[in-house]
Write a structure and sequence with these properties.
591 residues, alpha+beta, 6 helices, 15% helix
């Protein structure tokens, strides 16, 4: 059993936030047991054509000479874990009675290269004479560094199959585990091989691979283990078993190959219902944060790392595209970088062992920054300018955002900000007023704080000795106001009681003179007696008149005897006069 630890991480189905200098993991690192039967996980290259989608089966070569077809699994296998899978391979020669005269190779391949690299290698790796350096005698792994072929070697080539059995340069029933070196050249000797004869016009074999890792390199890039290849007939009879200890890349791409040369026929592959036991091969994807204008990394912004499965689709977007998420990808939110705005990022599919292409470049552009300059300046009427005015630090911010209030320094004693002027000549009472609606622009702003001196205090002509103390005027909020001049207060002379009473009496007389009688003539006696009062009313009125006369008499006495209560006597006199007139009116009514 495999004793190498493996961190199982669940799939991240939500949008994740990238952080500069940190790593994140997509999770979902284990293949389903039936992954090999899913046609969506396979890509055909060369002459390969899908025959069935469920389970997946493919015709690799269909009666074509000097042809090759790959079915490449869209993913990679983590070779640091135990692996087992199988498939059914069939071959039938185009002519003759020897079924193994159907081509050059038929079996599995394992390579550290990506599917794109494999496809491109097949098309471009051609010798000067036009023959392929990939297939034919090279078994489909020519030009693929550190790769493995496991299957039937259908032709015994005298120059490259030095350990094979059978007639040289003829059809063969050999099976083999073959490798290439680091430059992609086929290793021609000291490889595992055996004969696996079968009969019938069409030969169908079940090929099974088991991998048991034994150690992982210090840098975790390579794994050493034991590979076991078992080939059985369609009826389940084991034909041969090969075992070899190998060192391979930790993440290996899987595929099947069928190739022909002068010998050709029908070569095909079908997935089996056997369990597909494998962990997904992963790669580190580097996410760079670049300045769009310069193409260089943004200062003090380290790359992020995404640990992703080979074949995963990754995309990075800005916060303004938060809702634009493809459910078939692993989506990441680009970090916000001070002074920059997200522009774009290239989506990518994770390739196997491809440091050049396993990179996402996230582009940003600088956010326009505006500046505001502030300065003190003496008012034109200030003659003494011997004291240097303090400086004010600039402020800055994104264009179209509110201008930030600067930190103001205290002005010298007796000086204050009398107004604030802008570059376009606008004037404001305070700096707060000037900044109320101000926003940063692409051009620098200028605010000039005009400094005036407090006026000297005025004194009275009698030489008042009142002192106007000096104060340290704080200009932190730019709301200083000049000091008001002092005035001399002259105390008022107190009035005597006699003077006060005389004055009040004069005021009453003045008011009485202001009373104006109506200009209408007096009523005739006959008009005053349309209705006489009743006897009970007459008695009540007579009694009231008598009480009023008595009150008037008492008030007269008090007024004559007390000069200090003259004002009260005047009020009583008014009352007496009114009652006297009422008495006369009553006498007239009685008549």
């Amino acid at each position: 059993m495999n004793n190498i630890s493996y961190k199982v991480v669940q799939a991240d189905t939500t949008t994740s936030q990238l952080v500069p200098g940190q790593s994140t993991d997509t999770g979902n690192h284990i293949y389903p047991l039936n992954a090999n039967t899913n046609s969506a996980l396979w890509t055909n290259v060369g002459t390969a054509q899908t025959n069935s989608t469920s389970p997946f089966s493919v015709s690799l070569v269909n009666n074509q000479s000097t042809a090759a077809g790959y079915a490449l699994f869209n993913g990679a296998i983590d070779m640091s874990q135990r692996v087992s899978f199988s498939g059914m391979f069939s071959l039938r020669a185009h002519s003759g009675t020897n079924p193994f005269a159907a081509g050059d190779s038929l079996g599995f391949i394992l390579t550290p290269k990506s599917t794109d690299f494999i496809a491109n290698n097949l098309q471009t790796n051609v010798a000067a004479d036009g023959t392929s350096n990939v297939v034919g005698k090279y078994l489909g792994i020519g030009g693929l560094p550190d790769s493995i072929f496991v299957g039937r070697d259908l032709y015994q080539n005298s120059d490259v199959d030095l350990d094979g059995a059978g007639t040289e340069n003829a059809a063969s029933n050999n099976i083999a585990i073959r490798q290439t070196n680091s430059s992609g050249t086929l290793i021609t000797k000291d490889y595992a091989t055996a004969s696996a004869p079968d009969s019938g016009a069409t030969v169908t074999d079940n090929m099974e691979i088991e991998w048991q890792p034994t150690s992982v390199s210090t840098n975790e890039s390579t794994v050493t283990g034991v590979l076991t290849y078992t080939i059985s007939s369609a009826s389940g009879v084991t034909l041969s078993v090969l075992t070899e200890t190998l060192s391979v890349a930790r993440s290996m791409s899987l595929g099947v190959i069928g190739a022909t040369g002068g010998n050709y026929g029908i070569l095909s592959y079908s997935s089996t219902s056997d369990d597909f036991n494998a962990y997904k091969g992963t790669q580190n994807v580097q996410v760079n944060y670049l300045d769009q204008e310069t193409g260089q990394s943004i200062i003090n912004t380290l790359p992020s790392t995404i640990i992703a499965n080979v074949g995963d689709k990754l995309t990075v977007f800005g916060k303004q595209l938060r809702d634009v998420v493809d459910v078939n990808t692993y989506s990441y939110l680009a970090p916000e970088i001070s002074g920059y705005m997200f522009v774009s990022a290239n989506p990518m599919i994770v390739a196997n062992n491809d440091l050049v292409n396993n990179v996402i470049n996230v582009y940003y552009k600088k956010i326009p920054i505006g500046k505001a300059h502030f300065s003190y300046q003496y008012n034109s009427d200030v003659t003494d300018r011997s004291i240097a005015l303090p400086s004010i630090d600039d402020t800055q911010g994104e264009v179209n955002t509110a201008v930030i209030m600067p930190k103001l320094t205290n002005l010298p004693v007796d000086y204050f900000v009398s107004k604030v002027m802008t570059a376009d000549g606008q004037q404001y009472a305070t700096l707060e007023d000037a900044l109320a609606d101000a926003k940063y622009t692409n051009e620098d702003l200028q605010f000039t704080l005009i400094v005036s001196k407090v006026s000297a205090p005025e004194t009275s002509d009698k030489g008042s000795n009142e002192v106007n103390p000096k104060k340290d005027i704080n200009n932190e909020q730019a709301e200083q106001k000049p000091k008001t001049s002092a005035t001399v207060v002259v105390p008022k002379k107190k009035q005597s009681t006699k003077e006060k009473s005389t004055k009040q009496n004069n005021e009453v007389k003045s008011k009485s003179k202001d009373i104006k009688l109506p200009l209408t003539p007096p009523l005739a006696p006959s008009s005053l007696k349309p209705e006489l009062p009743r006897s009970s009313d007459a008695i009540a009125i007579k009694k009231l008149v008598e009480q009023s006369e008595a009150s008037a008499h008492n008030l007269k006495v008090k007024v004559a005897g007390t000069a200090g209560l003259f004002a009260g006597g005047a009020v009583a006199f008014g009352t007496l006069t009114g009652l006297g007139k009422f008495a006369k009116l009553w006498k007239i009514l009685k008549k």
